[in-house]
Amino acid sequence: MTDTAPFYETKTLSQMTKAEWESLCDGCGKCCIVLLQDPPEDGGRIWRTDVGCRLLDLKAVRCSDYANRHTRVPGCVKLTPENVGTLSWMPQTCAYRLIHEGRPLYDWHPLKTGDPDSTRKAGAGVHGTLVGEDEVDDEDLDDHIIE
């Protein structure tokens, strides 16, 4: 009997089923942090903060209203096979980005380990490192820049 390669090694993002697509998320939460961007005339640099989106459940590191996130948070970006390659702010460890770039998933990814908690165990997510967006005044967001 021959081993069959997993879908994420044989399919492109656009070939994946909805379930396969959703399973790529490793639960790191890095794409759910508040980002700040300099104005274009100042270079448009994007800055990461230690502030989680108001819908991010900080304990579970999952969206608390995933189905309605785009309506409730207008700036929430819907990932698609077409836009993944254009989102420079996506984490370097993101499975969507890795597959788009033709690179393998990290060994700690839940699809490789079979453990849904492997991202946290590997220290590859934002678990325990964020404050909630509702706890920070907009004028204080600059104080939360982490890179």
Automatic annotation (TrEMBL):
Pfam families: CxxCxxCC (PF03692). This is UPF0260 protein E5162_01240. It comes from the Bacteria. It comes from Marinicauda pacifica. Residues 117-147 are annotated as: Disordered. Belongs to the UPF0260 family. NCBIfam families: PRK05170.1-5, PRK05170.2-5. Residues 132-147 have a biased composition (Acidic residues).
